[in-house]
Design goal:
Elements: E1 16-18, E2 26-34, E3 38-44, E4 51-57, E5 65-68, H1 90-96
Antiparallel strand pairs: 1-2, 1-5, 2-3, 3-4
Length: 101
């Protein structure tokens, strides 16, 4: 895979991506997965301000590239996100480390 080529998993909220439209990059608003090989990409055409949806498959990856944005989100609060599975109980460990008042 070329260095600038994006995978479906690289398309995250806020990322600027080229290859969705032929002539310009778009800003990712949301990504909804359909199994492991297809997504519904919700994006904003920053030139017009309109929001669109497009179904993308793994076969579309060669035309996609991340232009700007983080490849991996680093702003998630794992203790507040109910979708993140915590097998080791980090929340209880963190609460256990709080000093007693």
């Amino acid at each position: 895979m070329p260095a600038d080529q994006a995978r479906l998993g690289d398309l995250m909220k806020g990322t600027l991506v080229s290859g969705v439209l032929a002539d310009r990059a778009v800003r990712v608003v949301d990504v909804a997965w359909h199994g492991s090989s297809a997504i519904t990409l919700t994006y904003t055409d920053e030139e017009t301000g309109k929001v669109y949806h497009e179904l993308l498959y793994r076969d579309d990856e060669p035309r996609l590239a991340v232009v700007a944005g983080r490849a991996w989100p680093m702003d998630a609060d794992v203790l507040l996100d109910p979708d993140i599975h915590d097998p080791v109980g980090a929340e209880s460990v963190i609460h256990g480390l709080r000093p007693a008042l």
